[in-house]
Amino acid sequence: MNSPSLNQNYLSIAIPLKGLVHHLISYICIVFCARIEDNRGKGGIDMPVIKKSLPGKVKVSFQYGCAMELVCSLHVITDPSHHVNCIDWYDHVISHVEKKLIRQIVDFGSRYANWDLVMDLIDNFTKPCAERSGYFDDFFSVIERLDNLPREQFAYIFLGETLLGNDDNIYDLLLHPEHLDQYDLYDLYQYVSRDNAEYFIRHVDEVRKEMIDIITLYYNVYFQEHWKKTCAFYRGAAIKEKAQFAAADPANFIASLHDDLIYESDTLIMRKQIDFKVQSEEIKEIKIILSAFTYPHLMINIYGNRISLYRNMLMPDMSTTFDNMAKSIRVFSDPTRLSIVKLLLDRELTNKALASLLNITPASISQHLKILKEANMLYSIRRKNNILYRIKKKEVAQMLTELKRFLDI
């Protein structure tokens, strides 16, 4: 398994395209050229190139689910700075969920790769959306499967097939945690510290219970209602994506899922900042998971003979839109209007007073005041026969904060 959080620089899938209309490939030659880099961005070492021909057809499915999207949202809560499309949603969840639960979410994520390992775990239990019509909620069925998963299998999938190597390793480690230093787990320690890995090995059942308790409480107090309001969005998106896939060249469609997926010389290249290993097993299935919480990342998961790719969806009302942001910025795009903002920050002035100070007509001042009012940055007060204006400092400060967060600076 390759966690979406685990960094890979180049994953190349060479795809012969001749004769293909609605099937992805007749064979795939997978070339994984990965370079290990630590989380501080230092240089790394080259990983071996693995080549494997895959006979037969590859099944492509589109998937989404409440449990899957819930865990993706926990990634945003743990690491919100990268997810500008979720700014408003993040502010909403932080203000509506108890701080104790938020701390538990962030703490667990800080120990276990920002919930990315759990995303891979849930991925294995998410069924194709082709089976669904209307509203559905798979949360409790997924939780039941997680709870009943054999201890060894849970630990193996959670920590990652490609990070642990042979599954015999997990049996040995669970029986003899003191053997941890006998294994080369450099890749694992890029995402889970040695201390946290050892704690997990020694307390698998406790960690599983902690994880299930957190996501169940979060589901009950917040995400269940969110899913009821948004499930239709995913259903419509899945219908649209499947129709586009059926009408497109399969390889080109896969390449269109993310800007870091590039089709070039019969090769599909996945450019990542992540280091991980892959086993040269046959890839028989490509799952495309729809999520509104994974942008801007290229998220992937490889487990056994399956590749999962995330389609980053932009859901309305989860964040300040480009149009709204541009409308706010427009307030400062005119030098006269900027002068008005400066004058009205700490005082109340009439139209006539502003016109006199700026040496322009009251009619021009009125136009600028109208724009400021439409942006909700101006309030007016009537005093006797005069109307005085003043800038809403809080609104200006909030707009500047949102702009800074939006641009990630």
Automatic annotation (TrEMBL):
Keywords: DNA-binding, Transcription, Transcription regulation
GO MF term set: DNA binding; DNA-binding transcription factor activity
Location of the HTH arsR-type domain: 318-409
One Pfam family it belongs to: DUF5937
Listed PROSITE patterns: HTH_ARSR_2
Xref: Gene3D superfamilies: Winged helix-like DNA-binding domain superfamily/Winged helix DNA-binding domain (1.10.10.10)
Transmembrane segment boundaries: none
PANTHER family: TRANSCRIPTIONAL REGULATOR, ARSR FAMILY, TRANSCRIPTIONAL REPRESSOR SDPR
Protein name: ArsR family transcriptional regulator
Native source organism of the sequence: Emergencia timonensis
